[in-house]
């Protein structure tokens, strides 16, 4: 009798989402949005609530994602192949550092202003 640990199959990991989120442009954009949501008193609480709800929904959907694991894994593999093709054609834009900006933006001495009305939720 073996002492093998046979746990229930888990939901597949989507590596393509991690790869896209780790690209400098997407990572910097998501970080800026998160910082804006957390620092704004009107969006801080709804943002935290949305995070908790999405975590709960993900936990409740686990039986479905486990059943669909082969399909999800295949889609993940196909998406990774597509991302590999995009990276091979545009390596500087996809894999470049977050400090790599077009020359026009680097030469600009004027500060960039943000319209604060975009961050105020509708009441």
Radius of gyration from the CA trace?
Answer: 20 Å
Largest sheet geometry: none
- Cα separation of the termini: 64 Å
β-sheet strand percentage: under 5%
User: How would the global form be characterised?
Assistant: flat
By DSSP (H or I, 4+ residues per run), the number of helices equals 7
Question: Helicity range of the residues?
Answer: 55-70%
Give the beta-strand count: 0
Average pLDDT taken over every residue: 79
Secondary-structure element order, as H and E?
HHHHHHH
Oligomer: single chain
Class by alpha and beta content: mainly alpha
Structural description of this entry:
It contains 7 helices and no strands. It has 123 residues and is an all-alpha fold. It is flat and about 40 Å long.
How is this structure best summarized?
The protein is an all-alpha fold and 123 residues long. Helices cover 65% and strands 0% of the residues.
Descriptive tags:
mainly alpha; single chain; flat; 123 residues
Topology (SSEs and partners):
Elements: H1 15-21, H2 24-39, H3 41-60, H4 62-67, H5 69-89, H6 91-95, H7 103-107
Region (Disordered): 82-111
Biased composition (Polar residues): 95-111
């Amino acid at each position: 009798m073996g002492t093998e640990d046979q746990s229930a199959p888990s939901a597949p990991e989507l590596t393509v989402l991690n790869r896209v989120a780790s690209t400098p442009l997407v990572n910097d954009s998501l970080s800026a949005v998160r910082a804006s949501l957390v620092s704004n008193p009107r969006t801080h609480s709804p943002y935290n609530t949305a995070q908790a709800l999405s975590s709960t929904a993900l936990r409740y959907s686990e039986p479905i994602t486990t059943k669909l694991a082969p399909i999800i894994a295949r889609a993940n593999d196909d998406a990774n192949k597509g991302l590999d093709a995009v990276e091979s054609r545009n390596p500087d834009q996809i894999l470049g550092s977050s400090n790599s900006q077009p020359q026009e933006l680097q030469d600009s001495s004027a500060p960039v202003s943000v319209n604060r009305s975009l961050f105020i939720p509708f009441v």
